[in-house]
Amino acid sequence: MSTLDQQLPNSADDMNPFAEVDFFDLEKSLRRPRTLMSVLLSGLVTVMTLLALGPLFSVVWMLFWRGGRKLSIAVFTQLPPSALEAGGGFGNAIAGTLIMIVIATLITVPVGVLSAVFLAKAKPEDKLAQAVRFAAKVLTGFPSILAGVFAYGAIVLLTGGFSAIAGSVAVSILMLPTILLTAEDAIRMVPVKMVEAAIGMGATETQTAWMVLLPTALPGILTGVMLAIARGAGETAPLLFTSLFSNYWPATNGHLNLMQPTASLAVLIYNFAGMPFENQVELAWAAALVLVLLVLITNLAGQALSSRQVR
User: Fold this and answer.
1) Domain boundaries, the chain
2) Per CATH, which fold does 68-310 belong to?
3) In this structure, which of 19, 89, 244, 245 has its CB flanked by the most CB atoms within 10 Å?
4) pLDDT tens-digit profile of 244-284?
């Protein structure tokens, strides 16, 4: 036998580097302190998570149990009932909420996205960019009632009455920081090579932002818009100072009147939850369920867009 034959492996076991390793020694054992501590901490985290989710699921279950019984076609098409009247609905509150959210989105998206482009393209030492970013972060924790007070002084007192426009302005103040900061992060995630390629082809900064940055960052921008809409739809305090409430439809004689008091789901829940009449209380539960479903759907849409951006 040659020297080369002596060095070659004689069997498949000789070719396997793990053939003589006892895999039973690699198994985790609770007798080991490190493994035991890992299992105990994992169990503790699981229990604490379930305890934290308990109140959330209990509230959702209560909403479906109390509010689901009142849901019908009538509650979406009829007006709120009077004190001793049976039946009724909150169709005008749904319409008012959607109108104010749409107006607030139309106000906020252009301002937020353009500001995000400025922040993403600005140099780190730019003082104006630092001030805008700081103001946006402060607004994320801005009390919602102060936004209502501001819109009351700037819109309601100026126009002489409560209106959907005033409510939309108050809600847009609360939506702006979410859209601005989320859009800035999305724009910063655009690969630098794409921007450099556009500039190398002779595109101006405006063309690069309009045709490269914004289309590429669109899923992230839409995520911020959806999250902002979800927050704005559930606000109550700003609307108490601005749009107030109304028992009528926002449109009269086929014409939409935005300069009159307008109903919203959040304010209807606030008004009817404290009523001593069972019918109004049941409508408040049903309206709360509808509002939660609207916010949930909007959040899920935002998460789906965010996942699409990650891919």
Assistant:
1) 23-66, 68-310
2) MetI-like fold (1.10.3720)
3) 89
4) 999 999 987 778 999 999 999 999 999 999 899 999 999 99
